[in-house]
Each structure stands twice: as C-alpha cells, then as structure tokens.
Amino acid sequence: MITLFIKRFENRQKQKKQNLRNAFGSFAGKMGLLSNFLLFIGKLLIGLFSGSVSIMADAMNSLSDMLSSILTLVGFHIAGKPADKEHPYGHERFEYISGMMVSLLITFVGFQFFVTSIERIKDPQSIRVTPIVLIILVLSILIKVWQGLFYKAVAKKINSNTLVAASKDSFNDVFTTLAVLVSAGIEGFTGLQIDGFVGLLIACYIIYSGLQLIREFIDELMGLRPDQEEIDSMKEHLASVENIVGYHDLLIHQYGPNKKFASVHIEIDDRWDLNQAHEKIDAIEMNFKKELGVELVCHIDPVNLHDQKQQFIHQELKKIIKGIHSDLRAHDIRTVNYEEENQLLFDLVIPVKFQLSDYELRVEIQRQVYEKIGNYKIDVIFDHNYLL
User: Any idea what DSSP says for residue 81?
Assistant: First the structure.
C-alpha cells in the first residue's frame, strides 16, 4: 500500500516536471509533521488526564518529532537549491546539517525527560488508565509503524540518510510507547508504581538515540568512507576498461547524497599519442557519469611497455613488494639518473593496519633492490589509502 502511494505521488511529480528528490523530501516532511502533530495532541491530552509522566514523556517525544519534521522540510528546501557562486557544488550537504539539528533536539528533549522521571521516582503517583487511553496509545503505535515504513520507503527511493534516521526514530517511538503500555498494565495488575522508572528508561533510550544520530551526521559532515559496494562498483568499471595498463589512486568524495566526485590515475602505454589518450579517458569519465552518477576526473600515467630493462625492473620490484606483504602495491615505477646516481622512483600503497613503519619498509625494500635489481637508490612516496 505504501509502495503504491509513493508510486502515485512520483507519477504526479513527473507530470509536473518537478525535482523528484526535493518533492519526495518535502512530502515526507509534511506527512511527518501532520502525523506527529496528531500524536502529540493525543498523547498530551491522555497524559494530562491520566497523570502519567511516561505518557507525557512520550508526548514530548512526539513534539520533538514534529519539530524534526519542520527541520526536515527546511533541510530539503535549502538542499534543493542549485549551485551558485558561493556554493559551486550545490547545497545538498545542508541535509546533513538539518539532520544534526534534529539529533541535537532529540538529545535535549531526552535530558528533559530524564530530569522529570527522576522527580517522579522520588514522588510516585498513580496512573489513571481508561479504555480510551489504551485505544489512543495503540492507535499511536499503528501510526508510528506506518510512519516508519513510509520514511524508510522514501529514504530508499531518494537515498536520504536524513529520512533513514527519521525512520529509525519512528520505530524507536513504537518501542517507547509499548513501554508505556507495559508500565500502565503492570500498575493495573500489581499496583506497583513504576511509571517514573519506565519514563527514566525511555529518557535514556532517547538520549542514546540522539547521541548516535549526532555521531552519524558528524561523520557525514567530516567526510565518511563510501559504502564498500559503491567502491567495488567503481573498481569493476575501471577493471573492465579495455586497452589500459591499469589504474591506481582512486579517491572518492561527495558534497551531498547525489553529488559524488572521484579522481583516478589511469595507466596507459607511453607510445599512445595525446588524442588517443584523451579519447580513452573521456570515454571512462562519461561512462562513470552515465552508469554510476559520479563526476570522475582521470589523470594519465604513461607506462613503458617496450623497454626490456624497464620491464625487468618493474617485475622484480613488484616481486620484492609482494614478498614483503601481499597487499602492498607499487605504481608509477620509473628510473632516472640524477647527479650520476641511478634512482628508482615509485609510489607504494600501504594497506590498513600494516605492521612495519614507513622507515622500516623503506630500508627493507632498499636492501632487496640492491640485492636483486642492482645499484639503484629508491625514492618512495608512501600512500596510506583507506579505500582498499
């Protein structure tokens, strides 16, 4: 049913020629605002009527969700603005900022609940439970389940971490409301006044959820590692390119969910002319844009494939590198004669958590080069690449 609902909305927006991402984000924010407002009013009324601090805490949580929906609306509105002189890569990262504000709000409300629950533990009061109270709480659970599934479906549709967080928060609310029902049920059957303790648990859970969301959005703003699936997809595309020697130094960064950029060094036969090399990298860049939605910039690295001496040095150096550690990779291998001294220059990609220091690795490679290749002084650029 949710899928059909989203599909119909998508078709209407296509007819209007609207930006689907912004339209879906705004639509999700409006639906969240409406449903959270209804939940807040309902829980506030039954909380005041029953005298339950845990229900009041749950009502305040719905209020924070309502404010979160407003921030989501504002976030998608600003994130949807086109690039300008001050922001040449667009405004999509504002979605992360609005998500951070939502997370801070959730955490603040959690601390407020914490204080209120401590006071109720010190001065416990009975909960007045009526059938209408139970009906409204059950309805609120059903609404939150629908809301969570709706957010999740839209988040998947437009690749939005902000809506993923909203979906998780909705399902968290389901569990907190269930905890309220348990509290009321236990008091009704046993007479134990545990409302303050349940409210305390809810407060701690809200604080924990808020802090987790803050950490996630900080990671996004600092520059989070891409998904391994995304990295592997780019590597597969590069590995499938015909007539190139290889590639290295793949770097990926983004300025929002749909603003992805990458750069890579493409190794080619040094006998190619500039036009041939330019046509090849143009094709690679256009393929990335079309198939992956990534703006790729290629750097050309000519490789000597016809000189036997150079080939011997390349092969022997790679054997030395692999003998030290199977995950070490050398590229940009070349030899020069500088001030009557033979030098062997190359870049070395270091795997994560490699045991040897750069100095120890340099000494060991130099020793084996003298032994197996000849009188070459090595000049190494160590590349600690975390996308491997």
Answer: S
